Amino acid sequence: MNNRKVINNLFSSVTKLIQKLTDEEIEKLEHGKFELVINFQKGKASKNDKSATVIDENYIKAINEKLDLAKSREEGLEIIESSLKNKNELELFARHIDVAVMKSDRVDKIKTNIVDATVGARLRSGAIQGKEI
Predict the structure, then answer these.
(1) Where on the phi/psi map is residue 100: left (φ > 0), alpha (ψ -120 to 50), or beta?
(2) Do the beta carbons of residue 75 and residue 119 sit within 8 Å?
(3) Model pTM?
(4) Alpha-carbon span 77 to 74, nearest angstrom
């Protein structure tokens, strides 16, 4: 591989990462209060590669807040379906909220596990405590 192609690939990767930055992160970068880190991965990243999928921390918090307000499992499932687009995002979100995910799990099972661990757990707890939901 010649140097021109290496540099082109590097700038292409950096451009993709910069496009994913939030306005707040760009402002920190502008003021020198932010540091970019380059990670080298084995093999070439594909479009279906999990490491290529990144979910913003604020977005995860927003989904969690919506799930905390859900009054039923069905409403929780709607929130998950509208917020998370594919299996990679579902797996990342599930791992973030400490829900076990196996490689062989299908999308529907992951969604159900997430809803059960969040909305379902809260509903069960309320039912045991005799709270009105």
Answers:
(1) beta
(2) yes
(3) 0.59
(4) 5
